[in-house]
Amino acid sequence: MRYTVQAVADHLGDSGSFEDLAMPHFARLYNLACWLTHDTVVAEDLVQETYMKALRGFSSFQQGTNFRAWIYRILRNTFLTSKTGLKVVATIDLDDETAAEPAYQVTPESLLLARVATETLQRALESLPMHFREIILLCDLEEMSYQEISQALGIPIGTVMSRLSRARKAMRTLLAAGKEALRP
Predict the structure, then answer these.
(1) Which residues have CB under 8 Å from 32's CB, separation 6+?
(2) What CATH number does the domain containing 131 carry?
(3) What is d(CA 148, CA 150) in angstroms, rounded to the nearest whole number?
(4) Contact, 142 vs 75, CB < 8 A?
(5) Alpha-carbon gap, residue 117 to 120, rounded angstroms
(6) Whether residue 83 sits in one domain with residue 20
(7) 38: CB partners within 8 A, 6+ apart
(8) What tens digit of pLDDT does each residue of 67-124 get?
(9) Residues whose CB is less than 8 angstroms from the CB of residue 102 and which lie 6 or more positions away in sequence, other chains included
(10) Structural domain span for residue 53
């Protein structure tokens, strides 16, 4: 038997449901994987491994529960048990040319300011401990609810709220310190 999404889905008696549930999350999972790993190649491998584990374990997924939180938890656990996750490397690619474009008139000065702001945010985010970084990424970038984050990380919702509060406070402190360093 060939192990394709369709073959496994047919075997489980739930034709196409894994694909229907999983594929809409692909781009966002890849985005989170890039933030976690700091390497697009490793991120691609991480997402592939996540989908393989999710496909293998799909029979244990309880229909009607939150698939998004379930697959994000698989991604997180896969990352944490990988070599990259165990090292939790904090490097920044300063050659990345994908700076946020401002919505107003584009000038060389405005592009430079936008790039500096983006790099400052990236540096601050990268310097946070992993448990703070992941909660900010899930809440603010992935726009997950506290309940979804709680399910994805396997922690109580109260812990999600307090950890997010501490993470945002740490970000504010890092950004304020960065501003102080730029003053003459």
Answers:
(1) 72, 75, 137, 138, 141, 142
(2) 1.10.10.10
(3) 5
(4) no
(5) 5
(6) yes
(7) 89, 90, 91, 92, 93, 126
(8) 888 998 899 888 888 765 555 434 434 344 444 443 456 677 766 777 777 788 888 8
(9) 110, 111, 113, 114
(10) 5-87
Burial of 60 (0-12, 13-18, 19+ CB in 10 A): exposed
Q: In whole angstroms, give the CA distance from residue 12 to residue 94.
A: 46
- Quick one: DSSP state of residue 145? -
In the predicted structure, residue 155 carries a pLDDT above the cut 90 = yes
Residue 93: inside a domain: no
Enumerate residues 6+ apart whose C-beta is below 8 A from 129. Answer: none
* 48 and 12 share one domain: yes
More confident residue, 178 or 8: 178
Question: Are residues 140 and 74 part of one domain?
Answer: no
- Per DSSP, helices labelled H in the chain are 5-12, 17-22, 26-37, 40-56, 67-81, 83-87, 108-127, 130-136, 146-153, 157-182
